[in-house]
Design goal:
By secondary structure, the protein is of the alpha+beta class. It is built from eight helices and 21 strands. The protein binds adenosine-5'-diphosphate (ADP) and magnesium ion. Magnesium ion binds next to helix 1.
Length: 360
């Protein structure tokens, strides 16, 4: 439904040229929820604005539903209003002098041809029900909470029945609890409407929990595209691994290739069973990515002994730093574990959870 082909864009300032989108290609199937995640400045917003037609690009093409909507080389540029998109931004961008109904009705009143009054009322009512604001139609927009304002913005984006919904960090201004609630609600609404969504965020939990497919962006390039589980558990690069969550990087060498994606790597912790992509072979220098939650401490009969060098008690878990020789590891442990600083403790890497990538 959304297709980007070799998209390229630079901003030229007086002193230098900034390459903001560096050859991005993406294919987002109809009805899917696609998240674009990356650090601030990686080019996410620019990419979204190019899809929306709010920004021109230098090279490549944008296709929506099979139709080319932007192709500088071919002289094609379909304006935003004709692209069939709905947009939601971080700032709610709702009009304070209007009530909820009028805010949501606005895009329909601007549409050509304009639906008649009864049709507008019916569609606004339907959309407000969809986002859970059916009872607040007559309330002034200023009387709403942040979460409700974001729902108004979502309703306004959906009321014109677009084919594509674009969202740019829509939850960043909400408090943590509300954010978690809204993640689920936005996902439910997207599913029930069946619309294709492209969602931009720097928040990895949002990216993983909402998406059918995640793309990790860095310096204008896509580092990796995959299902949430693959992005987190089998990252394609060190950048993707570290951006998506804390991890231990153990240098080592692949010593054996086993069937089913398994391998053995020699590391400072000894030989560890790990998984590795099919193109990696014995003898290759690797970095093993081991997530803190994939290490267990205090097991009886562990082959590895670690010494606790630091810990932070967090209530639902304990964040440990342990050392095995010169190798430090971060470990998330169950709060019941009572190992204090200086203690010697057995350590195990959970089988199959270590992931090998080529050494940089
Ligand atoms: P993100 O949304 O991932 O934080 P952006 O797409 O907003 O990233 O920005 C990517 C880069 O482009 C940043 O370095 C930003 O400063 C720069 N940039 C964005 N808009 C403009 C502009 N209008 N003129 C010049 N540079 C810009
Ligand atoms: Mg941005």
């Amino acid at each position: 439904m959304i297709r980007l082909e070799a998209l390229d864009k630079s901003y030229r300032t007086r002193r230098r040229q900034l390459h903001v989108i560096d050859g991005i290609s993406l294919d987002i199937p109809e009805g899917s929820f696609f998240t674009l995640v990356g650090p601030s400045g990686s080019g996410k917003t620019t990419t979204l604005r190019v899809v929306a037609g709010l920004e021109r690009h230098d090279g490549g093409r944008v296709l929506l539903g099979g139709q080319v909507v932007s192709d500088p080389a071919g002289g094609v540029f379909v304006p935003t209003s004709d692209r069939g998109i709905g947009m939601v931004f971080q700032s709610y961008a709702i009009w304070p002098h209007m009530d909820v109904f009028s805010n949501v009705a606005y895009p329909l009143q601007q549409a050509r041809p304009r639906p008649d009054k009864a049709e507008i009322a019916r569609r606004v009512g339907e959309t407000l029900e969809l986002v859970g604001l059916g009872h607040l139609a007559q309330v002034p927009a200023t009387a709403l909470s942040g979460g409700q304002q974001q729902r108004v913005a979502l309703a306004r984006a959906l009321v014109g029945r677009p084919r594509v919904l674009l969202l740019d960090e829509p939850l960043s201004n909400l408090d943590a609890q509300l954010r978690e609630r809204m993640r689920i609600d936005i996902r439910d609404i997207q599913r029930s409407v069946g619309i294709t969504a492209l969602y931009v965020t720097h928040d990895r939990a949002e990216a993983l929990s909402m998406a059918t497919t995640v793309a990790v962006m860095n310096h204008g390039k896509i580092e990796m595209i995959g299902a949430p589980r693959d992005i987190y558990e089998r990252p394609a690069s060190r950048f993707a691994a570290e951006f998506m969550g804390p991890c231990n990087l153990l240098p080592g060498k692949l010593t054996e290739r086993l069937h089913g994606g398994w391998a053995v790597a020699a590391t400072a912790l000894g030989d560890l069973a790990c998984r590795a992509s099919a193109d990696m072979s014995p003898g290759q220098s690797v970095e093993l990515i081991v997530r803190p939650e994939d290490v267990s401490l205090g097991g009886a009969g562990s082959a590895i002994t670690a010494r606790v060098s630091n810990l932070a008690y967090l209530g639902d878990r304990i964040d440990y730093v342990v050392a095995v020789g010169a190798q430090e590891l971060r470990v998330l442990a169950h709060p019941g574990l009572a190992a204090e600083i200086g203690a010697e403790i057995g350590l195990d890497v959970l089988p199959g959870r270590a992931w090998a990538i080529p050494a940089a």
